[in-house]
Amino acid sequence: MAAILERTAEITDDLDLPMPQRPLGKFGWNASVLTLGGVKWDTMRPDDEAIALIHRALELGINTFDTAFIYGKGESERKLGLALEGIRRKVWVETKVIDRTYDGAKEQMETSLTRLKTDYVDLMFVHSVDDEEQYRQIMGPNSVIKAIEEFRAAGHIRHIGVSGHWVKDVQARIIQEYPFEAVLCPVGIINLAYDYSFVDSVLPIARERGMAVLAMKILGAGRAKNARSVEPYFRYTLGQDIDTAVVGVDSIAQLEENVRIAKRAQRAPTDSEIAAILSEAREITQEWDEGEFDYVKGYMNQ
Ligand SMILES: NC(=O)c1ccc[n+]([C@@H]2O[C@H](COP(=O)([O-])OP(=O)(O)OC[C@H]3O[C@@H](n4cnc5c(N)ncnc54)[C@H](OP(=O)(O)O)[C@@H]3O)[C@@H](O)[C@H]2O)c1
User: Fold this and answer.
1) 21-287: which CATH architecture?
2) Is the dihedral of CA 227, 186, 45, 50 positive or negative?
3) Contact yes or no for 50/56 (Cβ under 8 A)
4) Using an 8 Å Cβ cutoff, are 104 and 75 in contact?
5) Hey, which residues does 183 pair with through a beta bridge?
6) Rounded to two decimals, what is the model's pTM?
7) Ligand 1 atom with least separation from CA of 254
8) Which of 88, 126, 155, 219 is the residue whose CA sits 20 to 30 A from 285?
9) What does the DSSP 8-state code read for residue 68?
10) What DSSP string describes 121-161?
């Protein structure tokens, strides 16, 4: 007891607190509540800085990393592979395959393993299933699913997941029709502000089926940088029924700020706090880029 008190007394910066972990689905992996997401630092930083950022994340207790075949035209996987040389087996690595065909998916997954300098990934997502057409391609014969199952049988993939950004009905349906083991979906307050959060529709189904739940869009793809503080945005997402929040950063300073927030004692915002943040969230997301705004404008003013 005295030792604990002494250690706590020594901690003057929240950064030095232990990283909270949560079981990732039923995989037997305790994931840091923050997962370092790709397509940010890895596309914006040269090799040495990208590697330094990953090593800082590891030092701070992040043990789970998210990338994808298409991020930065392969730069994301390549830099993650460089940074994890020699420590691959101590961390959780997930990537994503975007090709919907059997042959195309096989080729992409082989390339991913080479770039990541590993012979297995812990979790392979079918990337971005966001409309009916993609749903049909994936669930059809000779699709990406067959290729993934073969890779899993050969030991190159440990678990299978699906990610989606926009169409919650499609995601809710596909996880009931195929035994995916993990889902990556929007669980940000900004999504809630535009009524396209997956919290009510996808999360309960995923949990009922024993799946891992990974959250994204915590900061609305960076829009929350115009908020008074990013802290409530993290507290909202971490207060949902999720295992880990996937967040991208473009600097060590952003990484450290996010880790500080995640390490502090967590309390989910109350309903009235959420209501206050929602109006700010709507205000700052007027800056959606055109492509994304097309998706969300239908929800506005409802
Ligand atoms: N379908 C999919 O599978 C899919 C799609 C998208 C993303 N993802 C994954 O999810 C991760 C997160 O992506 P997201 O789109 O959901 O983005 P997000 O986490 O909502 O926002 C990340 C962005 O927020 C900004 N940011 C981070 N920390 C900050 C801080 N402390 N203060 C101010 N700004 C801060 C940075 O923007 P700036 O770079 O502008 O500074 C960063 O790039 C990605 O890295 C990726 O791994 C998956």
Assistant:
1) Alpha-Beta Barrel (3.20)
2) positive
3) no
4) no
5) 162, 213
6) 0.93
7) 31
8) 126
9) -
10) EEEEEEP---SHHHHHHHHSTTBHHHHHHHHHHTTSEEEEE
Closest by CA to 211, choosing from 30, 19, 26, 70, is 26
Position 299 scores a pLDDT of 46
Q: How many Cβ atoms from other residues are within 10 Å of residue 228's Cβ?
A: 10
Pocket of ligand 1 (CB under 6 A): 37-40, 66, 96, 127-128, 163, 165, 184, 188, 216-222, 225, 230, 246-250, 254, 257-258
φ/ψ (deg, to 5) at 112: -60, -45
Q: Among 188, 148, 146, 139, which Cα is nearest to 165's?
A: 188
Single-letter code of the amino acid located at 209: R
Instruction: Write down the H helix ranges in 226-301.
Output: 231-238, 252-263, 271-284, 290-296
Give the whole-angstrom CA distance, residue 22 versus residue 34: 10
Strands 182-186 and 157-163: parallel
Distance CA 126, CA 11 (A): 42
How do the pLDDT tens digits run along the chain, 302 residues long? 455 555 555 667 899 999 999 999 999 999 999 999 998 888 889 999 999 999 999 999 999 999 999 999 999 999 999 999 999 999 999 999 999 999 999 999 999 999 999 999 999 999 999 888 999 999 999 999 999 999 999 999 999 999 998 888 899 999 999 999 999 999 999 888 877 789 999 999 999 999 999 999 999 888 888 899 999 999 999 999 999 999 999 999 999 999 999 999 668 899 998 998 998 888 887 655 555 555 555 444 43
Q: Residue 246 C-alpha to ligand 1 middle, in angstroms?
A: 8
Could you identify the residue written with the tokens 């900004």?
190
Tokens of 39: 């397509």
Q: In residues, how long is the chain?
A: 302
